């Protein structure tokens, strides 16, 4: 994205004023990040009216190469540049190295100036003497290579001995010395050197086949997506810059002393937290959050808290709390501790009092409407500058239930003139007396009335300090809150966790908003929070999806900052198939049975045949096979029979043969039709006991295990995409986009007898149909199976 024309013209004019050439200035404007940095640096250096070109070039270097961990010292460095105390690139590079090592700590001016050569003047005579010494040492090489000698190397030798020498003088003297030694350039000097051809090594015959060649090694990021995160001991760099309307800048970073205290308290371990609100069921987006929070802690040998953000009692239920804990464990994660925001009410209250004492918070009496109006107009509250003692008393009255709900809030005194609306004196505490907290961690009772104070933003942020979190991992919508986040922690003098925002996980053909999910459930568009059509983790589990395939899916997506992408559902299904193909035993079920009577097999005759649970199973391995009865009455799918045959059809047709999987070839000899002469009621066929027939088509089937007794009857639920559109959340009438055929119930499917031993949650591959799991609604009299995913694998074909 390039700056808009008006802003771009102003920036170009500013860049030209400091001496940048037009080409460099225009290229800079094409890069928003560099442009923003350079404008900030020009203002910090107070050279908006222009400066010498040499100074301007150094300012440009500061804007592009200054170490991020020492931003608080940048204005100091710029004073040295503008005053020409630092006037050559070598001095500036030395300053960068010194400040990068210093970080946010104070430094001694004498040490800084010594490291950067401030005040050191190297005369032209000294430079000429050094150049002569270098030429004497390398005279033979220079005479041999003449003007093809690497000038940069000669320059480097001089710089080692005279680091603060003016590079322009060095270059002029080297050129003069070369001319004096070599004279005028000749035609040979301008010829390009002939490159010697490398001799090819003798090729050794490789007898290995293509199958012996190992696949290419995956990248480090693919093997370990957590490499992007810094270690605890690195948390001394500037996290962000907060620009205030009065021109001051907060460069949020930890001092070395603060960092050392944190490392000592945590023993240098990585501590993270997974902070769900207990106001609904977790969905697949939370699976990504868990993978990042728990996964990072596990990979670094640290710990992750499961911390319930129970600060909104109106929406909380114990059902949700129990569900979250169970799902976290099902996903394979083990919390270090399970805590609640309400566990820290007293500590949070004490920190709020400290915020008031420091002059950084006040009690406000504006209504929500007035607060909104004042924020829009960037006006301070009439109570913003009230005395600290008054705010302390009023806050205590709030805590003790002496002020009505809605009549007072505690607001942080931030910056109402800021360009960031998240700095508009955010509310830290408000009274919430009408709804009790789910847990019994309440404020002290006064006159028999318990009035808890509802915690808003302050709870989320300060808890990170209380829990000694190293990395605060959250989704990108919180990025704009960085300023207020670090403002608060800085105002209280607390340790600053490293914030890292990543993109939300959005999947096609579904909704992820808790409000929309709650509406689907409460208005009964779906059958509860664990409806297999939902992307809730309990719904996916009920559908038959494994936690390991979900984690593999999340890991494959990576921890990116691309917030505009939506992941195709096929990608998740690919990972589901990948696992179930290896773990789900095969079995046979006929969804829409069509009766086939085998006329050349004796009535009542039943053969027990071996069927494979796995494609590569050995028949002599009893654990890898199961028994299927074969009798004179079998059932095939209605869709596997046609009256009219065709060349591209491999099913059964009159006069045509097919192979019954694990059994025998059969040939259709007759068809019994209904009264309408169209509906197929029954098929007559003959089987080939010698198996000499070799048909192309192979069908799954189920047989009667006893004469006149139907096979095991089961209910099968076929689930499809819940919404037609890839992104229904962006539609005004998103409920109108619901797919009415997202759930199809088949009450009378036939299954092989061994499926009767299945337990709830068991997963199978129904051959030729897909992967299925036994549903919790099953009873001994009625087994129910949910389709997890079909056998079709279009995504897999793409990524191979």
From TrEMBL:
Q: State its Enzyme Commission number(s).
A: 6.1.1.18
User: A cellular component term (GO) from this record?
Assistant: cytosol
Q: Which UniProt keywords apply?
A: Aminoacyl-tRNA synthetase, ATP-binding, Ligase, Nucleotide-binding, Protein biosynthesis
Q: List, in alphabetical order, the Gene Ontology terms for molecular function in this entry.
A: ATP binding; glutamine-tRNA ligase activity
Residue intervals of the tRNA synthetases class I (E and Q) anti-codon binding domain: 698-775
Q: For the Glutamyl/glutaminyl-tRNA synthetase class Ib catalytic domain, which residue ranges apply?
A: 269-581
* Residue intervals of the Glutaminyl-tRNA synthetase class Ib non-specific RNA-binding domain: 10-167, 170-247
What processes in GO biological process is this protein linked to? glutaminyl-tRNA aminoacylation; post-embryonic development; reproductive structure development
Glutamyl/glutaminyl-tRNA synthetase class Ib anti-codon binding domain spans which residues? 584-688
NCBIfam families referenced in this protein's UniProt entry, alphabetically: glnS
Q: Which PANTHER family match?
A: GLUTAMINE--TRNA LIGASE, GLUTAMINE-TRNA LIGASE
Protein name per the record: glutamine--tRNA ligase
């Amino acid at each position: 994205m390039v700056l808009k024309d008006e802003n771009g013209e102003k920036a170009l004019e500013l860049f030209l004023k400091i001496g940048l050439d037009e080409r460099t200035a225009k290229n800079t404007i094409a890069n928003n990040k560099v442009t923003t940095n350079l404008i900030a640096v020009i203002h910090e250096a107070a050279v908006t009216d222009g400066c010498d070109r040499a100074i301007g070039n150094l300012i440009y270097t500061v804007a592009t190469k200054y170490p991020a961990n020492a931003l608080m010292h940048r204005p100091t460095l710029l004073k040295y540049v503008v005053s020409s105390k630092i006037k050559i690139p070598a001095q500036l590079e030395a300053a960068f190295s010194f400040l990068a090592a210093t970080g946010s700590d104070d430094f001694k001016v004498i040490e800084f100036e010594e490291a950067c050569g401030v005040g050191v003047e190297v005369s032209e005579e000294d430079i000429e003497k050094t150049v002569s010494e270098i030429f004497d040492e390398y005279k033979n090489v220079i005479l041999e290579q003449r003007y093809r000698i690497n000038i940069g190397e000669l320059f480097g030798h001089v710089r080692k001995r005279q680091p603060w020498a003016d590079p322009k003088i060095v270059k002029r003297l080297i050129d003069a010395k070369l001319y004096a030694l070599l004279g005028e350039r000749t035609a040979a000097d301008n010829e390009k050197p002939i490159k010697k051809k490398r001799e090819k090594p003798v090729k050794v015959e490789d007898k290995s086949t293509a199958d012996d060649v190992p696949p290419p090694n995956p990248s480090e990021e693919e093997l370990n997506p957590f490499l992007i995160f810094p270690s605890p001991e690195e948390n001394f760099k500037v996290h962000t810059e907060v620009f205030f309307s009065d021109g001051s800048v907060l460069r949020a970073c930890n001092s070395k002393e603060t960092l050392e205290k944190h490392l000592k308290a945590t023993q240098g371990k990585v501590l993270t937290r997974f902070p769900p609100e207990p106001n609904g069921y977790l969905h697949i987006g939370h699976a990504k959050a868990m993978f990042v929070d728990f996964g990072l802690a596990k990979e670094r040998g640290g710990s992750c808290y499961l911390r319930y953000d129970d600060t909104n009692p109106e929406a909380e239920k114990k059902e949700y709390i129990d569900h979250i804990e169970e799902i976290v464990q099902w996903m394979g994660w083990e919390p270090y501790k399970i805590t609640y925001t309400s566990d820290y009410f007293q500590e949070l209250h004490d920190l709020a009092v400290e915020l008031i004492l420091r002059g950084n918070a006040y009690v406000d009496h504006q209504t929500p409407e007035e607060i909104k109006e004042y924020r829009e107009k960037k006006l301070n509250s009439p109570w913003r500058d009230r005395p600290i003692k008054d705010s302390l008393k009023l806050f205590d009255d709030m805590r003790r239930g002496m002020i009505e709900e809605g009549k007072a809030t505690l607001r942080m005194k931030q910056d109402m003139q800021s360009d960031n609306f998240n700095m508009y004196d955010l509310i830290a505490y408000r009274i919430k007396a009408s709804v009790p907290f789910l847990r019994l961690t309440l404020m002290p009772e006064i006159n028999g009335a318990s009035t808890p104070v509802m915690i808003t933003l302050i709870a989320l942020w300060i808890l990170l300090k209380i829990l000694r979190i190293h990395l605060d991992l959250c989704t990108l919508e919180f990025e704009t809150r960085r300023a207020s986040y670090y403002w608060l922690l800085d105002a209280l003098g607390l340790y600053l966790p490293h914030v890292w925002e990543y993109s939300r996980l959005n999947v096609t053909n579904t909704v992820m908003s808790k409000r929309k999910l709650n509406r689907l459930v409460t208005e009964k568009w779906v059958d509860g929070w664990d409806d297999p059509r939902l992307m809730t983790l309990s719904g996916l589990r009920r559908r038959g999806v494994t936690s390991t395939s979900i984690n593999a899916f999340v890991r494959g997506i990576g921890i990116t900052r691309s917030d505009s992408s939506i992941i195709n559902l096929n990608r998740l299904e690919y990972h589901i198939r990948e696992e179930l193909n290896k773990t789900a035993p095969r079995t046979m079920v006929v969804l829409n049975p069509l009766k086939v009577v085998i006329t050349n097999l004796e009535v009542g005759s039943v053969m027990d045949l071996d069927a494979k649970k796995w494609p590569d199973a050995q028949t002599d391995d009893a654990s890898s096979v199961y028994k299927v009865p074969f009798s004179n009455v079998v059932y095939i799918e209605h869709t596997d029979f046609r009256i009219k045959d065709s060349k591209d059809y491999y099913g059964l047709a009159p006069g045509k043969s097919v192979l019954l999987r694990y059994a025998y070839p059969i040939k259709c000899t007759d068809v019994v039709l209904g009264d309408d002469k169209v509906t197929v009621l029954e098929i007559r066929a003959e089987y080939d006991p010698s198996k000499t027939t070799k048909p192309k088509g192979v069908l799954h089937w189920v047989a009667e295990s006893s004469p006149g007794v139907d096979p095991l009857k089961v209910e099968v639920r076929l689930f499809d995409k819940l919404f037609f559109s890839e992104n229904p959340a962006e539609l005004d009438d998103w409920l109108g986009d619901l797919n009415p055929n997202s759930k199809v119930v088949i009450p009378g499917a036939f299954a092989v007898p061994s499926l009767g031993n299945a337990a709830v949650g068991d997963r199978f591959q129904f051959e030729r149909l897909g992967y299925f799991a036994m549903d919790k609604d099953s009873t001994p009299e009625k087994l129910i199976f949910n389709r997890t995913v079909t056998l079709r694998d279009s995504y897999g074909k793409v990524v191979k």
